[in-house]
Amino acid sequence: MKKFLLFTGCSLLFASAIGHEVTFLNSKTTEYKRNVIQCSGDVVAIYDKKVISAENIEYDEINNTIKATGNVVIKDELGNTYYADYIEVKNNFASGHAINFKILTSDKSRLAAERCIIVNQAYRLRDARFTPCYQCTKSGALTWQLKAKTVLFDPKNYTTYQNAVLESFDVPVLYVPTLTTVSSNIRRKSGFLIPKFSMSSQRGLGIVLPYLWSISDSQELIFKPVLISKIGHVAWIYYGLRIPHGHFQIDASYTGTKSADKKVGQVGSEEKVLQKIQNSGYRGHLFSKFDYDIDNHWRTGFNINLVSDRFYLRRFDIVDNPDRTMVSTANLEGFHHRNYTQVKTSMYQADYMDSVPMLLPLIEHNHFFNIFGGTFRVDTSCMNLKFKHGRNSQKYVINPSWNKEFVLMWGQLLSINAVASFQGLKVSEKTRSDYNSYSQVLPQLNATWQWPMSIHSSFLSDMVLSPIFGITVAPAKNYFDAMESPFDEITETNIFSNNRSISPYNIDSGSRYFYGTKLNGYDESRNIYRIMLGQCVDITRSRPTLKYSGNEGKHSNIIGSLDIFFTENLSFSNVLSYYNAKRRIDRWESGITYIANRCSIDIMAFKGKQCFYDPFKIPEDQISESIAEKKYKGVYFTANYKVTPQTSLNYGVVFGNSYNHILSDTETRKDKIKLLKHTAGVVFENECSKVMLNWERNNRCTGDLKPETCFKIVIQLKKLN
Fold first, then answer.
1. How many CB atoms neighbour CB 257 within 10 A?
2. pLDDT greater at residue 200 or residue 530
3. DSSP-H helix ranges across 243-310
4. Which of 65, 68, 404, 562 is buried most deeply by CB count within 10 Å?
């Protein structure tokens, strides 16, 4: 006890004696001679915001020099750790040198060299090695490392390598004269980013060489020139800006190359698109987004999506799976408790919907409050539609509704919903069309009853059976407009819904009822199967419906779904739409999913007939089943298997028929199943690297997109920013 008190007193004495330069926190022995402090035995000191521990530390007050020997460990304020057998620094690490020097950065990367010279708080290493690998070291072989004649490590800025050689598993792979990487403590710095390489039978060799210009902490500009050997070059840029409570970004590309191939035999809508591309002499895209929070209740923004043609993004590999319809919007939104207000404008761009109007603007408000023990909701909307051919339409919708749920005897549930929809349309146009001005009131009363019953069985699993019955009483609509579809497709999502309308600004009309059941089976606490079966029946019909909409007659298709969970890893799902009057299956989808620790498999098969209808392109009185009918069928299979914890194999194949929504008189439908897509790949990933090898065969053939075979190799060296 006396020795401990004596040691503590000496430590505090010397800590206060040397002032603010060095503070000793621990040492076994301490001597003070001629303005030099010598400490030994598990010494811990603080010098220039760095914690130094060593067997021996010596500090010269006059020259402001500190020397440390024996298992030297230094931790700086940035999270980096330095190791050495001997180190000598002066004037707060402004200069110095070290022997057998190692650096462990804050992101767990490592640098090592026999000798190190410290200049202006930067570390210059000779004959150094760099690697982020740690687990690899235990096995004796590094996945990759850099050997450089000179390395300048600046913990606050960057690391520069001179005459560096990249080695993989001790085999030289690449020589780099000069390489600069950003410190892990730097959020952003200008420089080249990792390039992207691709090889395709249609496009040839493709190279994307991005360069990041860090304008400021809140702004960045990325130049991404695209060089493609067979079809031309693309100028591509990205700009991002962060502001308080918001952000802005723009992504755009342009090419002056007439890159659309002239294909013999192109007819119909695709021929017009190709001619437009060839005559224009340019192709490109513009994506832009802006979001801003005005306060805690209001926000605004816009989202612009424009493209020269729908084949451009995939042909130049700008976007892997672009949307067929580009939507540009600008909106103002307000949130107050459960209430919502929105002012929105929209513009649509698609080759097969060239007569879709602009929405200028849409104003809607949803208001909620409680009354008479239930929830009263008022949905209001007003929209202005501007068509390309000189027709303007203004539509308003006011839907006040009241909803209340009751719990009856024996656990039965009853939901009552009352709606009074006020709708109107004003049309001004140069030429007469099928849709005229109107106003109408549509009252609607809905009631839904269900009875969840728990059934216990010693032979079968425990079940919860829920029979459902609902009825809607409402008059049929007298007027329709271009925002309404001539059919409401009946699926498993809306078979038990009070409103089957596709448009959110309309309610379904006419009286009807639906019935069905839901069944859930449980084994202890696990759900082992789910069954749903239902049908709806129209009492009054408001308008004729198209074939394959699921509601061709008064009796809709019988909709059923089945989910079976064999184990926690294996499940089966099936959806079916059966038309009883014609004894046909209009739609079915079946799938099997298996997910385990090392393997995952997904198989899905589908077949059906649906209706495609564009009310802006095809007048209602000219609709025919041959135009509106769409047949689809196919199957896809995907699998992933982990050979080792670092290596996985993946495989995928898609079979299906190809169809075109809009056909000319000379076009024929191709409903035969063929191979659409085929992929196979290998992925290797560990702590310091990621390698992806992927082969893909795509048989799409539309516009100037040809069937192609593509091979991709992606090599990512982690922590080499």
1. 14
2. 530
3. 268-280
4. 68
**Percentage, residues of the chain above pLDDT 90:** 39
Long-range contacts of 58-65 (CB under 8 A, 24+ apart): 59/18, 59/21, 59/22, 60/35, 60/36, 61/18, 61/21, 61/35, 61/36, 61/37, 62/35, 63/90, 64/21, 64/90, 64/91, 64/92, 65/89, 65/90
CB 430 within 8 A of CB 477: no
Q: What angle do CA 522, 526, 527 make, to 5 degrees?
A: 55
Report residue 138: phi and psi, to 5°: -65, -35
Closest C-alpha to 226, from 239, 211, 207 = 207
Distances (CA, A) of 207 to 210, 236, 261, 403, 573: 10, 12, 21, 59, 42
The 3-state DSSP class for residue 137 equals: helix
The DSSP annotation for 537-601 comes to: EESS-SS---TTSS-SSSBPPEEEEEEEESSSSEEEEEEEEEETTTTEEEEEEEEEEEE-SSEEE
Backbone angles phi, psi at 583, to 5 degrees: 50, 55
Dist CA 655 CA 386 (whole Å):
41
- Residue 434's pLDDT is 58
* DSSP reduced 3-state for 299: strand
**435: Cβ contacts below 8 Å, ≥ 6 apart:** 393, 425, 427, 480, 481, 482
DSSP structural state of residue 620:
G
Question: For 252-310, how does the pLDDT look when each residue is reduced to its tens digit (9 = 90+)?
Answer: 999 876 555 555 444 455 666 667 676 667 888 999 999 999 999 999 999 999 988 77
Helix (H) or strand (E) holding 306: strand 298-307
The token duo for 229 is: 């050997």
Angstrom distance (rounded) from CA 364 to CA 195:
46
Residue 89, classified by CB atoms within 10 Å of its CB into exposed (0-12), middle (13-18) or buried (19+), is buried
What CA–CA distance (Å, rounded) separates 105 from 53?
18
Nearest to 381 by CA among 428, 342, 337: 342
pLDDT, one tens digit per residue, over 651-696 is: 999 998 865 444 443 444 556 788 888 999 999 988 888 888 999 9
Strands of 120-255 (E only): list them.
122-131, 145-153, 158-168, 171-182, 191-192, 196-200, 204-208, 211-216, 219-223, 226-228, 232-243, 246-255
pLDDT band with cut points at 50, 70 and 90 for residue 29:
confident
Q: What SS3 string covers 377-415?
A: EEEEEEEEEECCCCEEEEEEEEEEEEEEEEECHHHCEEE
pLDDT of residue 128: 94
pLDDT digits (tens, 9 = 90+) for 487-501: 567 888 889 988 887
Helix (H) or strand (E) holding 15: helix 2-17
pTM recorded for the entire structure: 0.75
Residue 720 has pLDDT above 60, yes or no: yes
Q: Tokens 């621990």 correspond to what residue?
A: 26
Is the Cβ–Cβ distance between 470 and 445 less than 8 Å? no
- CA dist 192 and 716 (Å) reads 15
Residue 612 confidence (pLDDT) above 80: no
Angle (CA) 32-33-35 rounded to 5° is: 90
Query: What digits encode the pLDDT tens for the residues 461-518?
Result: 789 999 999 999 998 887 776 666 555 678 888 899 888 876 767 778 889 999 999 9
| For the ranges 33-42, 383-392, 421-430, the one whose mean pLDDT is highest | 33-42
Name every residue whose Cβ is closer than 8 Å to that of residue 1 and which is 6 or more positions away in sequence: none
How far does CA 19 lie from the centroid of its chain? 56
Which residues make Cβ contacts (< 8 Å) with residue 621, sequence separation at least 6?
434
E-state strands within 50-121? 50-60, 65-75, 81-90, 95-104, 110-119
